[in-house]
Structure formats: structure tokens, C-alpha cells
Amino acid sequence: MPELRKDPVVGRWVIISTERARRPSDFGPEPVRAKGGHCVFCPGNEDKTPPEVLAGRPPHTAPNTPGWTYRVVPNKFPALRIEGELEPSGEGLYDRMNGIGAHEVVIESPDHQASLATLGTEVVADALLACRERVLDLKKDPRFEYILIFKNHGEAAGASLEHPHSQLIATPIIPIMVKEELDGGARYYDLKQRCVWCDIIRQDRGGRRMILEDNGFIVLAPFAPRFPFETWIMPRAHRSSFEESGYDDLHGLARTLREFLGRMNRVLNTPPYNFMLHTAPLHDSRLPHFHWHLEIIPKLTKVAGFEWGSGFFINPMGPEDSAGHLREAP
Amino acid sequence: MPELRKDPVVGRWVIISTERARRPSDFGPEPVRAKGGHCVFCPGNEDKTPPEVLAGRPPHTAPNTPGWTYRVVPNKFPALRIEGELEPSGEGLYDRMNGIGAHEVVIESPDHQASLATLGTEVVADALLACRERVLDLKKDPRFEYILIFKNHGEAAGASLEHPHSQLIATPIIPIMVKEELDGGARYYDLKQRCVWCDIIRQDRGGRRMILEDNGFIVLAPFAPRFPFETWIMPRAHRSSFEESGYDDLHGLARTLREFLGRMNRVLNTPPYNFMLHTAPLHDSRLPHFHWHLEIIPKLTKVAGFEWGSGFFINPMGPEDSAGHLREAP
Q1: Residue A189 forms part of a structural domain
Q2: Across the 330 residues of chain A, what is the mean pLDDT of every consecutive 10-residue run?
Q3: What is the least distance, in Å, from the CA of B59 to any CA of chain A?
Q4: Which residue from A100, A104, A91, A119 is spatially nearest to A261, judged by alpha carbons?
Q5: By residue range, what is the domain housing residue A158?
Q6: Is A165 a catalytic residue?
Q7: Closest-CA distance of chain B to residue A268, Å
């Protein structure tokens, strides 16, 4: 059973997941991964994943057989386990609880070679709609406080499989980074009676940090990005919960995300990247001080001692420059 | 001039350092670096670095000539600039200031092939004493609030040069990670009237997370480590400021650090690693709620979307296991 542990100084929780009983020799600076050949996410290998919890497939096909357009399956090597209770306990001054949660994979297409930038808008929209469905379903479980939807694309960005997929992890604790955004948003709202992300949109719309605006979404380079070409996609209108998005909203997001990723790939030569969706906690609805958004970070630089020790990031490219390149991309 | 910018939501400052006017094509997932041949830190190339600000050298040798045992030089490509004033200013809802600071490199040995684990104790102690000297000198500059001493060892850990060296960066702002530790330490002290790190030492000394204890220092795997084999080295006695360490203290640290790095290299096959020294802010002396410590993280795993989006880290090895391997290392 994985374990959640809290740092007694800063209150950051970590997941200790020792299920695979790793030895020191399992770690290498560049772990070797099997490439090519057999892919557990490809059609025909449905029995190599845990049984699907959701899929887009014609009515005449059976679950866990070929014919699907997307599949959502539990992660075979989950960071957190769905079975059990949290059983929080202490160990002297330390706090721990069982590593309860859900860890699912959204296989976005049967096509191993595809990517969100090359798939059709309908396919991308289906993946987003599948994420929404899974959030709405997992939200019923009272043990979960938050669901983070994210993507690792490319080995340097932490992907262990090439086949196009996103992931979601439901956690029994609101992640510290989301908590910091919630707290920051609440402080700003207390002061101004306005959403800080709405104010960012008002200030930056049409300006030097704007990349594009379409389909009800705005794509911006943030004022203080940690990484070169870091980008936020936000609904133009104030919305705090991703899972309250409608069908049209998610089709709009699919078009905007594809457009952005296409430009990013042309400007940066198809880089590895991560995206992370920040939405309100599961039990908070219609927050006036939080605005959901998708953060995209191409993996272009290394994080080193100064960043790990300070939390300061050194970014060699200002957001005005990165937005300019992406705005003017062919 | 680099710029310091503050994220308007979470209050995290970043350094935008565009001096080298990078284009998108400058970024590659794995940037190619010149290897072998010419090294600017090797003896004979003293004119390839900015003039030394401190060096260990026999009295008959001139500055910036061979013969030194260690050298401290300004970084040729500094993240922050020493000249100028902060000139804080706003841009609508955003905050910025000039990127003022100091960025220095401690070249630990003339031997290009050496490392802290293989250098003699005296040499390591000299490097630590040089860091202390530089902190005491830079502390006189009223523009600086903090100095982070850190090391990037190996390309995967962000080192751009092989030659053994550490770095220090003086910042006009207390880094957010240090602030979080200060705040966490103060909360604990308010509650208990005790230093949380002293309590950690009391609880873990001789236990499953202890790696070694010697020379007035204790080496522990923290209860909630972000990374496999993450390790803290702390003075046994309560001390808040590294730069108040005496000659004997730093010789003790040198011996303990060498011993730890030797064991880490044997257990993990000489991994790339970072260390970061967390000490009290420059203008805070003898804090009862802060305890200086060195954090060491071998670079064994990749940080991916879940970590970047949540602040949760998934660690495949518990600290009891990593401490066991390091405790029993030959």
C-alpha cells in the first residue's frame, strides 16, 4: 500500500510508493525503457491494461476489445490505490495516511503515432469529455478532495509510454500548489472583490503576452513564468470548475489546445511537454476567487540546485518574447 | 539587466534573464555542450573567468595565475547582476524589480577530474570556509536578504561544466522555499517552544532514518522525502546560521559530507546530484525556530506533470530503505 507522508516543517505531502520494492540498482540517471514493438495501449492489447472504465466504441463491440476511439483504464502501476481507508496516524511528530486515491489513464486514440496536435478536433474533444466524465464519477467518492488531470508527452517530460495518453490522479488531500493558488486567489479577492485571473485576462488581453484568443478561451504567457514558453489556457468567462464545462466549451478548448500545440510544435520543433489542469477542489463549487486553467510547460531546460533550493526559477526567455514567437507562428 | 518578477497569484518570484537574447532554436530537449578539451576553470585559464574575489594560493603567486588550491570568481553568466539598484515598480497588477544580486562560483580544486567525494578533507573544508567568507563579505551589502549556496554535479543535475565547483547566489528577496521553512519552523515553535529540526533529530537519532552521526553532524533521510535517497545533513546542536560556524565546525562538516558522498557514490554508482544549503536570512541571527541544514538530492528520477501541477512528489523509495542502504554501505 502506498503511503502519504507530510513534511513536518513545510506541510508538503509526498507519496511513498514502494510497491515495486526498488533497489538502488534500479535507478539510473537515464533509465532504459523498452522502445518500439509491443505497446500495451495499442488496439489488440486491451487485455494488457486493467479493464476499461469508460470508452468510446461502437455499440456492437464488447468492452476491452478493439474498435474503440478512446479508452479510460486504471493505471496498472498506480501512484495511489483505490481500495481501503485513509487511516491517518502519527509517528511521533510525523503524520501519515494510507495512499488512497485513483490513478487513471485516458488513451486518446488507437493511433500509436498520433498526438493531441495532430489528432482531429473531435478526437481531442472526446478525450476532454472523457476526463470530465471521470471527474464527475470520481467526485462521488467522499474520500477524494481533488483530481489533477495532466499529461506527460515525451520521455524528457516523464512519459514512460509513447502512445498518446493523459492521466488523472484523485487525491484525498488538496495538492499544495493548488492550495497556494486558492489562497492567493482568496487574498486578492478579499482585497479587490475580483478574480485575479479575470484581472490578468483584462490586463493582458490583446497585449504583448497574449498568444491567441478563440472559442471562448484565451491563451497567455504568464507575467512571471518559471519556464521558457510556459503558457496558460483559460476560459474567457469566469469559471472555477473544469467539470462544469459544457459540450461546446470542451469543443472550444479542444480547438484552442490543438491550435496552441501546433504552434508550439512549429516554433520549438515538437518539444516534450507537460500540461496540468488546475481546477477548484471537488467539493467547492462556483468559487468567485478561483478560475480554472490549463498550464502547459514545454520541457526545454533543466531544473538544478538553485531552483530546488530556493523555489526561484531562472527563465532565459521573457513571456513577451515567447508569446511573440507563438503569436506569429506560421 | 535581468528582471525579478512576482507571480500575482502565488507570490513566487522568478528571474527573467534574457541577456543572451535566446531564440526558440536555442532550446533543445538535450542541449549539446562542449565536452573535454578546454576548461575555463582549469589552471592556466584564469583569464577566462572574471577576476577572483578570493583564492587559496601561496603568498608568492599573483591573483589570477596558477598555483591556487581553490578560487572564488563571479559567474561569467550571472543569473543576477551586482551593479545597480532594485527600483521596484508595478505594471498594472504585476510587480517587478531589477535583477540585482551576486552570483559566484567556488572552484573547489585545480584538479578537473576530482569531486568532493574524492578530494581530501582539508580541500573540502577550504571550500566550505571559502563559502563562509563570501557570505560574511556579501552580507555587508544591504541590498541582499539571502544567500543560497548550492551545487550542481553532473549534467543531469544541471551542471554546465565538469570541473568541481559550487555556486552561491545572493538575492534581494528571501526565497519562497526558505520562507516556507521559516514560517513552518515558527509555527512549530509557537506551538511547542522547540525547534522542529531539533525535535526531528531527537526522534530519528539512532533510528531507521539515520544514516550516520559524526563530527557534530547528523545525516538523516527525511520522513517525507520528495526524491529517492534525499538526505539532510544538520549540525547536532541548534544553529540557525551557517556563516556563524567555526573552523572546527566546517572541518567536521567536510568530513561528514565526504563520508556521505562516498557512501552515496558506492550505493548509487556515482550519480549526478544537487545540494542546497538552507540557512537563516542574512539579517536574522540566532533564530530559535530555524536550524541550518544541507539538503542533498541525487538525480535519479524525472519530475513530470503530476509533480509540476500538484507539488506532490511520488517517491519510489521510502527513507527507511534509502537510509538502510546508506547506513550499511561498505
Answers
A1: yes
A2: 95 87 64 62 96 96 97 95 95 97 98 95 98 98 97 93 96 96 98 98 98 97 97 98 98 98 96 97 96 97 94 94 94
A3: 34
A4: A119
A5: 3-22+36-175
A6: yes
A7: 6
